[in-house]
Amino acid sequence: MQEVKGNKVMTSTESIPEVLAKRPQRSDARRNYEKLIAVARETFATDGVSASLEEIARRAGVGIGTLYRHFPTRQDLLESVYADDVELVNRAAEEVADLPPWEALATWIQQLVGYLSTKKALAEAVNFQSALFKSGRAAVHDSGEKILRRAQDAGAARPEVSFDDVLRLIHGVTLIETVEPGQRERILAMALDGLRAQPGQ
C-alpha cells in the first residue's frame, strides 16, 4: 500500500500475515473491527479510497474514536481491508476443494473475477512493490496454482497453461468496460472455454 504525505510516498513493509496478526482477539473489539472492515470495503468500492472515515465509522455503528483505535491512519485501514480481502480469496479456494476439478477451477475464477471487478478503487492505493502486495499476490498465486494443477492433472484444463496466464486473463476480464448486464459473465464464459482442455489434448 502507499500513503502520500506531502510529497513523500509511504510504502508498507508489512506482509499479509503481519497485518492479519493485528486483529483484536477480544470478542467485542473483534466485532467492531470486522464491522469496520466490512463497511470500509463497501465504501471504498463505491466512494473511492478517499472516502470519509467519519462516514465509515457512522455506517459501522461505532464512534470515530473506535475506528482510530483499530486503524490509527487511513493507510492502516486500507492495508487491513486488502489483507482481509486476500484471506477471503484464499478461503474461497479452500471452499471449492471438494468440487470436481474443472468445476472447482471455473467456480473459483468466477468468484475472483466478481471480487476483483469491485476493487478498482482499492487497487489504486496499492503499491505493487510493497511487501503487502507481494505477500498477497503470492498467497493468491499459491491457491490458484493448486486448483489449476488439479484440473490439469484430471485432463480438464489445457496442460500448457500456467497460473500466470490465468491471472492475466482474469485481470483482462475485470478491466473490461461492459455496456449491458451479464456481458462480463458472457466474456468470462468464453475465456473459460479457451482454458478448458479440448478433445484430443
Structural class label: mainly alpha
End-to-end gap: 42 Å
Helix amount: 55-70%
Give the CATH architecture of the largest domain. Answer: Orthogonal Bundle
CATH fold-level name of the largest domain: Tetracycline Repressor, domain 2
Q: How is the quaternary structure best described? A: single chain
Q: Please report the number of helical segments.
A: 10
The whole-number mean of residue pLDDT values reads 86
Major beta sheet, strand line-up: 1-2
Q: For the report, how would you describe the main beta sheet?
A: 2 strands, antiparallel
- Rg for CA atoms: 19 Å
Shape label: elongated
CATH class of the largest domain: Mainly Alpha
**Tally of discrete structural domains:** 2
For the record, what is the CATH homologous superfamily label of the largest domain?
Tetracycline Repressor, domain 2
- Poorly predicted runs are 1-10
Tell me the series of helices and strands, N- to C-terminal: EEHHHHHHHHHH
* Total number of strands: 2
- Determine the strand fraction and express it as a percent band: under 5%
Supply the key terms.
two-stranded antiparallel ribbon; 2 domains; 66% helix; Tetracycline Repressor, domain 2; elongated; single chain; disordered N terminus; 10 helices; mainly alpha; 201 residues
